[in-house]
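ligand=protoporphyrin IX containing FE
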Amino acid sequence: MFLFKLIVSSLLPFFILLVVKLIHYKQTTHSSQEHKNPPPSPWKLPIIGNLHQLSGNQRSLSKLAKKHGPLMLLHLGSVPVLIASSADAAREILKNHEPMFLDRLASSNIRKITYNTKDVAFSPYGEYWRYAKRIVVHHLLSHKKVLSYQKVREEEVTLMMDIIKESYGSSVDFSELLISLTNNVFSRVALGRKFETKRVKKFIELSAMVTGLFRFEDYMPCLSWIDRLRGLDSTIEDHLKNVDEFLESVIEEHLRKKRRESENGKSCMADQEQLFIDVLLEHKEDENTTSFRFEKSDIKALLLDMFVAGTVQTFSTLEWTLSELVRNPKTMKKLQEEIREFAQGKSMVTEEDLSKLKYLNAVFKETLRLHPSPPLIPRELTHDLNLMGYDIKCGTKVFINTWAIGRDPTLWDEPEVFKPERFLNSPIDYFGAYFELIPFGAGRRICPGIQYSKAINEIALANLVYKFDFAPPNGEKPEDLDTTEGTGALIHRKNNLFLVPTSAFE
Ligand code: HEM
């Protein structure tokens, strides 16, 4: 079997070239019949369309958009994909024509890991999505709920700082520390106790691996048998099995707890104190009070959705921020001066202090401008539409390239430079009203986790730079600090962030 796979994978490029050359594809006449005035497209090959021009990330899309314009139509195999790369195009899609772009694009890999889109993020727009989103907002992510997690955040930040203090002068894996922080906070507030970071890393591996994998099934269905020969399904299933076992054990643990409580005659907890997982389980059981009843797989999909966003996505912004600050010592110094002056003599910066720290706020906006994760917002068009003068067909997949918008030289002065000052006297924020900065999207499908991630990231960073100074390991120069991006739908650093912390007060 191994030999067979090896032969197939080595012959694959030749096979594709052969098919491409042999089959004459009347693409120009074909597309002009379909669209009266389609958006500009790069030249394409028969069968594979524009696939050969992509290295699978936002950078190659940005390069193509520079040539073909902010609204560009690609053909990935047989699938039309619209790429929006300007603030104006994003406004047209997310605001002016929002009702037609409320569906989510979900690849077959994504469908597999979301229990067939039964999460919130990839669920089609409709009753189930509305119902599930209301639950996650009300019971986990609302402003009131986020405020109620303050003590947990402060405790976990203190624990992280204690670990750092024990490592003064030596190289510390900050990626590991920061993901443990976001994992510990999320596990405690949503599930009632901490779970090992090692297990959470399974989610990272899974999401990075699955989202980064190309499948013929999605773009050239006639070649989907190659996916099976490459062993893709079994690789995904192996990972999914691990994650599923973990989610199953979390659910079982809570069901056992609930059974014990009812045997001991304990009454239901007040809504305020209920954990997110208990709320989900209640919606599974209670036939009378809800129009939907969650299946167990729906609960797993929602837990996984929240776990990935609450830990991985949140920690990624923190990791990029610390990287940029260490790489830009003047910016780090300015932030440290703001915080140290403000918090002078305090043992810790508290959440009450955060709203007064204007530079800190600008630093996060700048990170989210340069390193939005996800860099592409996926949507799907549900009607034929004339958009910015171009005819687009119903069913077209859409990516809004927030990474490209954040680096657009017509919007930003010195776009590649990390310069939080640009936000100090500017009204621009990231809550979906300013389309030049939409790291959380906009409109009805905007990210519901903004307050959650803001709260944890700000308190963690404020205390890190209050108490410690940082240097790159091995005497490296700050400007040489590695900032290579990883691949996949969420962009983390490719390599873990190692830094040498020292005390700021010794
Ligand atoms: C810095 C951290 C985060 C970033 C940059 C981010 C970014 C995004 C983006 C770009 C979208 C798509 C929005 C759209 O289509 O307009 C999204 C959706 C979503 N995010 Fe976040 N997110 C973050 C943190 C979180 C957290 C902490 C949670 C929950 C624990 C969360 C849960 C979700 C959900 C459920 C959706 C789907 C919303 C829907 O489709 O209606 N996110 N996020």
